[in-house]
Amino acid sequence: MLKAYSWIITSYLVAFFAAFIFIRYVQSEQSLLVQTFYADVIATVIIFLFSLFFRNASFYDPFWSVVPFVICLFWVYRSDSEYFWRDIFLLTSFFIWGVRLTSNWVKGWKGLQHEDWRYGALRKQTGKWYPLVNFSGIHFFPTAIVFLGMLPAYYSIMHAEKEISYLDLIALCLCIIATLIEYYADEQQRAFRLNRKEEKEFCQSGLWKFSRHPNYFGEVLFWWGIYLFILSANPVFWWTIIGPIGITIMFLFISIPMMEKHLLEKRPAYRNYQHNVSSLIPWFQNSKHL
Length: 290
Description:
Blueprint: H1 2-25, H2 32-54, H3 63-78, H4 84-108, H5 117-126, H6 130-149, H7 151-158, H8 166-195, H9 214-233, H10 242-266, H11 270-276
């Protein structure tokens, strides 16, 4: 495992170094936001090349949780913002969330031979087109959608016009609560899998009693928490709501359907669970909510 983690760390160091070189030495008349996106894509391409070499698309998995804090820290460094505490709240939100999500990946990753089942399924379904699907769907799309989710953070840091308010505190608390929901949901799922008697059993206790995907709910809620910061900093940029909306749509129409199709194939009893438990938002049984 040490060798496996060494390769993961090496790939990310190379990716971040390539992004740094671009930001530092490549002259551009584009805005800082656009330059950051280009650097983010460059880092994504580097990780993609490593995933091709090792035939393991899971090289990308920690990217989702590591990069947002690095980008946010970079924006704070490059800004001349006078609103110190709002920047600290944003950095704290991304740091706590990133550590939680990355540690969850570490607990579930079993080495270079281990790849997320979804990537293997896509490889079988797409055949010779898999490299294209790999880059566009597994690497580039998540990079783009997360960057979209970070738009409220960018404008909160670079274009804030209002002092910190109660709304910033609400945003921070919402991000922390969302992270805790993800943490407890994943830990409950992990504990269940370690103790279940039959492979076909699935978790229906704890947070999973009120939502079929409480971990996804926590993830969606986190990005809505990030959005609240811009409503406090400068409501003119309300349109950055496209970020959390995009992430919500991704989970509702891509992540959840793909996961539930997989579960139904292996666990027919899951269908009854679908009929009685909310898909995303935690609710009482027999709910017709999301």
